[in-house]
């Protein structure tokens, strides 16, 4: 069985004038697809990496037609557009090439945080009050305001369609209408896209990762961001800077998170329902805040159907390690989920002309 690993590398991303410094933070470094290729080859598959771009000097379509993969391991984020993560899966469907992880609709929906929240509400799943801004002077959601016309509670401001906490910093929390409008105006200018504003939930932040499909999901130990380790004055925000650290020793987390069995069961249920509501496939991570003012009630922040796969570094990989899974077993589980979903066991059972157990 031949597998093409598809990703967009930071080194290959276009450089544009006035581009935000964090514009390509959600793209991969070369080591990530290289590690996945090595794992797949160690499993007995033929595997190679391809830059997921159709722009010169790359031509993904011709490369795939030449390589003729039986399956693609998709990590591609793409570069432009509010549904950019859906672009390569849509291309693969046009070429009728099976791939791992979610399809175009789920990826486009999950990248749009506002649309995701609307779907969550439609399914009765908990998420914080919110408003989408296309102008800084829009009329505010009445839920945000008290009788004096000021903010009822702190709000959180971030770009609507970005990953890796792009645009999220310690100043993302706003407490006055003036600060809110200034922050929204700055983000509109910087990111050139609508801006999501939601109630800031003071409390713990936990991440729930999973592999599988439908109701057959394997949940990894839950991660909690250990904000206490960043100092007493830290506001409890999983910032872009924290996700972009080079030294894993500087990233403070608890895995498994100190939660009761009941809390874990509730989080697994909500994460699974979110996974299914957005029609995700094979792998995902759902992020929650636990409301310190409401008995640690969980509220869904977002779902990431293309979680990072850097071994020993990305949240999902750290969760897998906490369960005793190495990077090879994690990658193998994702591939196995896709093989089962696409009905490819007849191909996976023979590698380089020899039988392979599946």
Q: Which features does this protein show?
A:
D-amino Acid Aminotransferase, Chain A, domain 1, 3 domains, 31% helix, single chain, disordered C terminus, four-stranded antiparallel beta sheet, 11 helices, six-stranded antiparallel beta sheet, Rossmann fold, alpha+beta, Dna Ligase, domain 1, 358 residues
Give an overview in words.
The chain has 3 domains: 2-101 and 341-355, Rossmann fold (3-Layer(aba) Sandwich); 129-199, Dna Ligase, domain 1; 203-337, 2-Layer Sandwich (D-amino Acid Aminotransferase, Chain A, domain 1), CATH 3.30.470.20. It is built from 11 helices and 15 strands. The termini are close together. The strands form 4 sheets. Strands 8, 9, 10, 11, 12 and 13 form a 6-stranded antiparallel β-sheet that branches. The model is unreliable at 350-358 (pLDDT under 50). It has 358 residues and is α+β, with helices and mostly antiparallel strands. α1 links the parallel β1 and β2.
Mean pLDDT: 92
CATH topology of the largest domain: D-amino Acid Aminotransferase, Chain A, domain 1
First and last CA, distance: 12 Å
Low-confidence stretches: 350-358
Radius of gyration: 21 Å
Total E-strand runs: 15
CATH superfamily membership of the largest domain: ATP-grasp fold, B domain
Roughly what fraction of the amino acids lie in strands?
Answer: 15-25%
Please count the helical segments. 11
Helical proportion, percent range: 25-40%
So what's the overall shape? globular
CATH architecture of the largest domain: 2-Layer Sandwich
Biggest sheet statistics = 6 strands, antiparallel
Order of helices and strands: EHEHEHHHEEEHEEEEHEHEEHHHEE
Oligomeric category: single chain
CATH level 1 name of the largest domain: Alpha Beta
Please tell me the total number of domains. Answer: 3
Structural class by secondary-structure content: alpha+beta
């Amino acid at each position: 069985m031949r597998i093409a690993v598809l990703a967009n590398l930071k080194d290959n991303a276009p450089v544009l004038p006035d581009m935000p410094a964090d514009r390509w933070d959600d793209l991969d470094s070369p080591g990530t697809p290289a590690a996945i290729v090595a794992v797949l080859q160690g499993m007995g598959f033929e595997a190679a990496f391809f830059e997921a771009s159709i722009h010169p000097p790359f031509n993904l379509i011709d490369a795939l037609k030449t390589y003729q993969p039986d399956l693609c391991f998709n990590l591609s984020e793409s570069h432009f557009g509010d549904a950019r993560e859906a672009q390569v899966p849509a291309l693969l469907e046009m070429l009728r090439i099976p791939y791992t992880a979610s399809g175009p609709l789920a990826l486009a929906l999950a990248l749009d945080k506002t649309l995701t929240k609307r779907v969550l509400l439609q399914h009765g799943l908990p998420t914080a009050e919110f408003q989408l801004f296309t102008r800084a002077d829009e009329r505010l959601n009445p839920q945000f305001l008290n009788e004096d016309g000021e903010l009822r509670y702190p709000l959180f401001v971030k770009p609507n369609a970005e990953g890796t906490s792009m645009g999220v910093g310690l100043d993302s929390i706003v407490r006055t209408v003036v600060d809110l409008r200034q922050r929204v105006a700055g983000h509109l200018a910087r990111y050139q896209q609508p801006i999501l504003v939601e109630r800031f939930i003071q409390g713990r932040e936990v991440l729930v990762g999973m592999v599988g499909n439908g109701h057959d999901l394997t949940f990894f130990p839950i991660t909690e961001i250990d904000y206490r380790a960043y100092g007493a004055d830290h506001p409890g925000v999983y910032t872009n800077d924290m996700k972009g650290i080079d030294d894993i020793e500087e990233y403070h987390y608890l895995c498994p998170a100190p939660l009761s069995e009941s809390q874990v069961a509730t989080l697994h249920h909500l994460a699974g329902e979110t996974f299914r509501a957005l029609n995700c496939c094979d792998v995902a991570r759902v992020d929650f805040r636990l409301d310190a003012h409401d008995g640690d009630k969980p509220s869904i922040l977002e779902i990431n159907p293309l979680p990072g796969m850097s071994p020993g570094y990305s949240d999902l990989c750290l969760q897998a390690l906490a369960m005793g899974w190495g990077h090879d077993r994690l990658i193998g589980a994702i591939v196995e989920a896709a093989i089962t979903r696409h009905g490819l066991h007849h191909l996976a059972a023979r590698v380089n002309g020899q039988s392979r157990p599946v």
